[in-house]
Write a structure and sequence with these properties.
71 residues, mainly alpha
């Protein structure tokens, strides 16, 4: 995630973070990453609320987030 964010322009990074947190708040009601990780469908709700560019970026985040959770 850090590498992905570091490769984005400042504006793209700002937009991505803003979109992800807005989607998490409005789509899931999750207040913590633990709450979000306990229900993988919440990740799908977040993804479905994003624009196309943010969806591609969030997909990378979700893959890393889910794979780290399994370890």
């Amino acid at each position: 995630i850090e590498k992905m964010l570091s490769e984005m322009s400042r504006e793209d990074r700002r937009r991505f973070v803003k979109n992800v947190f807005a989607a998490i708040e409005t789509q899931t009601g999750a207040k913590t990453l633990t709450e979000l990780s306990n229900d993988k469908m919440k990740l799908f709700k977040v993804w479905s609320a994003l624009d196309d560019k943010a969806k591609a970026q969030f997909r990378e985040f979700a893959i890393l987030f889910i794979s780290k959770k399994k370890k």
